[in-house]
Amino acid sequence: MYSDQYQAFLQRLKAARRAAGLTQRDVATCLNVPQSYVSKCESGERRIDVIELTKFAELYQQSLDYFAYGHNDAADSQKRD
Q1: Domain range enclosing 58
Q2: CA torsion, points 67, 61, 41, 12, in degrees to nearest 10?
Q3: Cβ neighbour number for residue 63 with a 10 Å cutoff
């Protein structure tokens, strides 16, 4: 059983992919990994290290803060300006 915080992270990972208009297969092709890798990352079967998360973040055009905390500091800063 995963913590609520980790469950929220997994939901953000999947939501970011969908918001980017990508399928798991698309992501797998871009990252040069099997589609099952992406599926396991999103389901929590495979833990993601910070290097891997950075690759997802760049592909999805999201900040690491978005995945960790649910907000994008860069976007939030622009809204305040």
Answers
A1: 4-80
A2: 40
A3: 16
CB distance 69 to 57 below 8 Å: no
- Domains held by the chain: number: 1
Structure token pair of residue 79:
């809204």
Rounded Cα gap, residues 81 and 18, in angstroms: 28
What type of residue sits at position 76? D
Contact 35, 42 (CB under 8 A): no
CATH assignment of the domain containing 39: 1.10.260.40
29: tokens are 């092709």
Quick check: 34 pLDDT over 50?
Answer: yes
Amino acid identity, position 12: R
Structure token pair of residue 71 = 């907000």
Q: What would the pLDDT profile of 10-19 be if each residue is shown by its tens digit?
A: 999 999 999 9
The pTM is what? Answer: 0.83
